[in-house]
What we know:
Layout: E1 10-18, H1 24-34, E2 38-50, E3 53-59, H2 62-75, E4 80-83, H3 89-102, E5 108-110, H4 128-134, E6 141-142, H5 146-153, H6 160-172, E7 177-180, E8 191-198, E9 201-208, H7 218-234, H8 249-268
Parallel strand pairs: 1-2, 1-4, 4-5, 5-6, 6-7
Antiparallel strand pairs: 2-3, 7-8, 8-9
Helix pairs in contact: 1-7, 2-3, 3-4, 5-6, 7-8
Amino acid sequence: xxxxxxxxxxVMVVAGSDSGGGAGIQADIKAIMAQGAYATTAISALxxxxxxxxxxxxxxPPAFVVxxxxxxxxxxxxxxxxxxMLATRATIEAVAEARDRLKPKLPMIVDPVMVATSxxxxxxxxxxxxxxxxxxxxxxxxxxxxxxxxxxVGRDTDTLDDMKRAADKLMEGxxxxxxxxxxxxxxxxxxxxxxxxxxxxxxxxxxxxxxxxNTHGTGCTLASALSGQLANSMGREDGELxxxxxxxxxxxxxxxxxxxxYVHRAIKAAPDIGQGHGPVWHGV
Length: 284
């Protein structure tokens, strides 16, 4: 009897390219593969960037973003759709329409990429409302950092209580679950807290704060590691689905725990690359 072939979970990533390799599509592919899953990509924007900042952005025409998504789903298919930098309102509208038309039940991990680690804006101001109404409210899980959560819910998000209120508001708005990434909190403490809000309750993940500037791409990396974990779980017996086709809260919790621990190791192992905010090391 021949052995069963390994079948990895498949994540289709719609996001921007980071020429420096630390964030965006490049980080997504590395993080997803590190979870043992397979990544396909629909590139929404090209950036000229390095560890010191974003020097230029070229937006891919929305119709071509849809062409990439159509090509992938017509052949390779996907278990999870993960979105990252979408840059413009037109691209957000095109991605939402394509998902609804091509595979309306495809679970979405929405990473609302708005600002780079360097502080450079990555999403047009007029696109925030479209992101919230067309993608976030239909997400299996939305993964904002603190500044992004503040923009999405319209109030400051600094403390753990703020994070809980923001998560509640995102879920009231339609998201099935929310992971608020706390790395942007005040650096005065000795730990960093991420908050996962599920239908069954909230969970806080605390990690020791690492004194490093090598944090470029941590947000993309966490959301993609989570996507890879969930894609793998979709075809396993222990990755049970609820009545709406969502992974169970137990599956979401385990996937998040694994992804958070992976990113902490990746930051810890980061080499010193570049003269600014260096990338994490995805090969841990």
